[in-house]
Records
---
Amino acid sequence: MRTFSLLKGMPVYDHNGDLLGEVCDICIGKEGKVSDILLQAKGLIGKKFRLPINQVLSFGANAIMLSDNKGLSKYQEQDSEYTMHHTKPLLKKNALSEQGEQLGLLDDVYFLEEVGTIVGYELTDGFFSDIAQGKRIIRTPHPPKIGKDAIIVSVNKLRGGMNYDEMSELPKQRPR
């Protein structure tokens, strides 16, 4: 499982060891799957390229490897997809439950790199709240409904179904 924040800036190499660029964004379809990775090509102009996630040979700890670069194409926006930063950005978009509860602002996505399925959303309530209470991670069994102003997610009820069971928090640092 990966997060977008871990992929951002990661170098992408072809099978010959040639650097093709760095990850600058991901494309998310309406079905709630990561379909493509956006690369910022090396060079002065730095064109953006689309890399289908199924063309990736391996996601390493320090780089992404491709079997070949035939799947690369020049990036063009598509009406049916969203990105984290570029076209129709999802970053910092309101996340609501199906019951209308404000969950927070989208800060990151967790996805299975082999197939691109998004399995969770990291939400923030702001800098000070994140320090005091930690960020929340929403696990979702179904794709979100992405609207112009908000993302509607079905919250996976864990254990007892209480609010504190639904949203796991990142561990807080202990004061020294």
Note: Confidence is low (pLDDT under 50) at residues 157-174.
---
Amino acid sequence: MNVPNSLTMLRILLIPVYVGLLNYEQFDYALATLFIAGLTDALDGIIARVADQRTRLGEVLDPLADKLMLTTGFITLSVMHLVPLWLTILVVSRDLMLMLGAAVAHFTHTQVDISPTVLGKGTTLVQLATLVSIIFFASRRLDLATLDPLLYLMGGVTLMSGLHYLSRGYCRITSSQV
């Protein structure tokens, strides 16, 4: 367990704190927790590269921590009726599809490229911006309907990204069987 992996574990351990703060409508503290999680994400990546401490565990834990933070945020806000259920279903479905695809590839010994694409990274960025915006608006008691265009944009990008990863995986599997 090196420093980058420890920071990633800290980020995972912050998730229940973050969810609890959201549930108790402590939105400013939830935003601060999300900010701290973002700092640990940046630091673990920098340290891993600079100190040459990249590990296979880190390659799995880091994106998992990001997915858990975003997914639990959307689920929690959806339960609180601050995010439409359809959007949360879309986010969760995409992430489950990615994890299921990686698991199938692993168990069938199919070589697939699980590296994030530009569209995948962009989707994560848009999802994070949406999450932060919703929490910020809720903390200031602003009209969440103002964010509807952002929700639709995020939904569209999430859907495109999911279809892109699905297509990429399908092409890889079918080309390896030829």
Note: The longest helix spans residues 148-176.
